Amino acid sequence: MAWTNYQLFLAGLMLITGSINTLSAKWADMLSAKGCHDDPEHDFSHPFLQAVGMFLGEFCCLVVFHIWLCHDRRRPEPRINPGQRFNPLLFFPPAMCDMLATSIMYVALNMTSASSFQMLRGAVIIFTGLLSVAFLGRKLAVSQWIGILITILGLVIVGLADFATGHRDDSHKLSDVITGDLLIIMAQIVASVQMVLEEKFVYKHDVHPLRAVGTEGLFGFIVLSLLLIPMYFIYVGNFSNNPRHVLEDAIDAFCQIGHKPLIILALLGNTVSIAFFNFAGISVTKEISATTRMVLDSLRTLVIWVVSLALGWEQFQGLQVLGFLVLLLGTALYNGLHRPLLARIPWCAARMDLEESSPAERERLLNDGSVQGADT
């Protein structure tokens, strides 16, 4: 079945904005400018402020939802189901998980390459699968367990590629690369807790996806903005790259933006892209399929890697290519992308359950748009 022009537009929008999201965040990390009080020029290293911008982008989804809902109510026959009434505080626990995971990942992005950052985020399926079994009572198919094992192998290969690159790459110290990779894996554990909480407590309340993403963005934006105040006084030594060596120096960030306005373009790219990425991802699932969304998300990793190479942000690593392919295979098996192929083989089709995923499972995939944040 051929795609319509609108479906092609949505797929392209998801792929482009998802790639811009990671690339713009990495671009901001690579820019340098003078800070406050005549500080010497230094890198823009402000991961928590970048996370605030990401949550602002998610919050925009809530604004868009209410504008869309008001417009829809003026029609003779409204098409949007606003969902049942719910307590917004249901979103607070997953929002806090999103805040912690996103902040950790932005810290890690300062330490490693954009492509490795995106590839290692594939670890989320390992922990989501295990937590779903432990706390949601879900039974994973044999192909999903195989997908998890293959994903672990892919993570090891990507880690080895980063280890090899760290020995001869002056842009990142080997210790920073290893630390960054480990932080990304840790962040995926928190992100998987977020997804399990969302499925257990939130999505059973029939909440519209844009409303869910936007409400989490609102909580994350408010809480993290307030946390920037104590972070300004928490000394962390060489762990931080800002001149005062505190956990986050938002004032220094604004001074750097004043000295180099180009930084604000990178930050806006991150904020705007996450809003459009969430909208496009949800729309792709509704207009085409959740499977297509998974494929496009995997292609996003490839786009980020190719663009990073073209811009000279990182060196070509054959081992990283192998790692990407293995991760792609693991993700495909876990998400059931192999089923349409096996369905064409009579013997396999007879032994497979080829029914559509349950409404609850489809709803879970439909609502899986928080940043992964970021898509983070």
TrEMBL record:
Its membrane topology: Multi-pass membrane protein
Record has rRNA processing as a keyword: no
Superkingdom assignment: Eukaryota
Entry's Gene Ontology molecular function annotations: transmembrane transporter activity
Gene Ontology cellular component list: membrane; mitochondrion
Location in the cell: Membrane; Mitochondrion
InterPro entries recorded: EmrE-like, SLC35_F1/F2/F6, UCP036436
One Pfam family in the UniProt entry: SLC35F
GO biological process per UniProt: negative regulation of mitochondrial outer membrane permeabilization involved in apoptotic signaling pathway; positive regulation of cell population proliferation
Segments traversing the membrane: 48-69, 89-108, 120-138, 145-165, 177-197, 218-235, 262-282, 294-313, 319-337
Keyword list, A-Z: Membrane, Mitochondrion, Transmembrane, Transmembrane helix, Transport
Described function: May play a role as a nucleotide-sugar transporter.
Family: Belongs to the SLC35F solute transporter family.
Assembly and interaction partners: Interacts with SLC25A5.
PANTHER family tied to this protein: PTHR13146, SOLUTE CARRIER FAMILY 35 MEMBER F6
Protein name listed in UniProt: Solute carrier family 35 member F6
Organism: Austrofundulus limnaeus
Taxonomic placement: Eukaryota, Metazoa, Chordata, Craniata, Vertebrata
